[in-house]
Amino acid sequence: MTTPQQVRQSSHSPMGAPSTSPRKPTTLNTLRGLHKAGEPITMITAHDFPSAHVADAAGMDMILVGDSLAMVALGMEDTSEVLLDEMILHCRSVARASKSSFTVGDLPMGSYEIAPEQALESAIRVIKEGRMRAVKLEGGREMASTIARITQAGIPVLAHIGLTPQRQNALGGFRVQGKTTAGALKVLDDALAVQEAGAFATVLEAVPPEVAALVTQKLRIPTIGIGAGSACSGQVLVQVDMTGNFPPGRFLPKFVKRYGDVWGESMRAIEAYKGEVKARSYPAREHTYPISAEELRSFQSSVDALHIQR
Asked: What residues are labeled active site?
């Protein structure tokens, strides 16, 4: 016996039905397997249920709830403004949509730098309250003891070296790292340090591709590049950037490739809706709910009897 399809008479409904052919959940072993096989690891950011839903459905290996949401979701000036509580709220939203992708939550500035114990407390919250599977933090050798403390507690850590945006003021702005011999050696030293501390992978940001390639060759763990060339073990981009979900004229880093025009499509749809509302062509008959002629006549008679004055 077939069950009739439920008809919702409400504007509130789930984002969509589960996939008919769901992927197996991506785990650390899955990521290690991809790395061992030489298959690039795909990662993208998401900051809420819809952005995570589409990333998961598209088959991304990893989803990062990055602190870039400070700018792209909360309208802040930079990542230093976002708070741990705000990150956790976004992590929870992303986690509800991510059925297969391996999820990583960023530790925001101020939530891990004071001491390893502070970092562990923050990491536990991101895992326990935010429902993430791992955390990410910025910094190289100076953060090794912090990474070790978190991993010793059983929480996977994704490191982040090269350009570390939370430290832009100390770096003199958003500057490419590793452009000199000394700078490149520091990137390698940081990479080896976070590897030995127990990080399962590291983001390499804004590093010359030749340097990133050599660093990747010297590591046992994967490198996830962003502005670091194609020789990295994987790549990550901010979803809002790569989908083109921003107004014309917005600055984009050199490494961003725009794969879509979500802003343009949204503008066209919203402007069309506005036009149809102004012309009273929306809603059309097929967008409304029926009432029988008998009930309508009864309602009209009841209203007339009330003698309502406008």
From this structure: 205
